[in-house]
Specification:
- The protein has one domain: minor pseudopilin epsh fold.
- The protein has 212 residues and is mainly alpha-helical.
- The N and C termini lie close together (5 Å).
- It is 49% helix and 10% strand.
- The chain is globular.
- The protein has 9 helices and 3 strands; from the N terminus they run αααααββαβααα.
- Strands 2-1-3 form a 3-stranded antiparallel beta sheet.
- The chain binds fe (ii) ion.
- Fe (ii) ion binds next to helix 1.
Length: 212
Amino acid sequence: MAFSLPSLPYDVSALAASGMCQETLELHHGKHHNAYVTALNGLVESKGLAGKTLEQIVAEAGRAGADGLPVLNQAGQHWNHTLFWQVMKPNGGGDSLPAQLGAKIDADFGGLAQFKEAFKQAGVTQFGSGWAWLIVDASGKLKVTKTANGANPISTGEGTPILGADVWEHAYYLDFRNVRPGYLDNFLNKLVNWEVVDSLLSSGGLKSGQSA
Ligand SMILES: [Fe+2]
C-alpha cells in the first residue's frame, strides 16, 4: 500500500466565508499536504516502514529522537493535516458544543473561555512552525499542548490529539498575513467542527486508516 492524500470533507471554497480562502486550501491541501504524502511514500522502502500504520510510524519516529526526524517530518505532517481538515467545517466554531465535550472542557479547564484562551496561547507561543493541540492525556484528562514542526502528541507520547491547529505560516498567511492570534481566534470561533472533536473524544482519537 501507499499513503494517499485524503479528500477534503468539504468543497475547497467552502471555508472562504469562515476565514480560510480557496487559495489557502488549494495550496495547503493540494500542494503542502500532498508534498508530505509524496515524500513519505519515498521513505517507505529505505526506512523499513512497509506494513506499518501511519500512527505506528509517527510513534516510532518520535521515540527514535533525532534519528527519527526525517520520517517524523513527513509522517507527522501527513497525520497532522489529516486531522486538521476533519476538525474544521463551514460556519463552525463558537460556543455551542455537544454536551459531552462541553462538560469535559468545563471540568478540565474551568470553562470554554479558559480553554479557548489556553489553546490560543499555545499556538501564539509556539516559536516558528508547529501545532497547537487539545489532547486526552494518559489519565483521561483534557490538556492543551503544542509541538514544533511535524511533531505531534503521538510522537511525543503526551496523549491523544482530538483537535489541532496548524500554526505554520502556510496555514494563515494569505488570510491573516502575519497575525497568528487573529487566525487562531478565527479558527476557534468560525472553523472548529465541535461535533467531530466530540466524536474523537468518544472514539479515542483519529485512526487515519492509512498504512505503508
Ligand atoms: Fe500545514
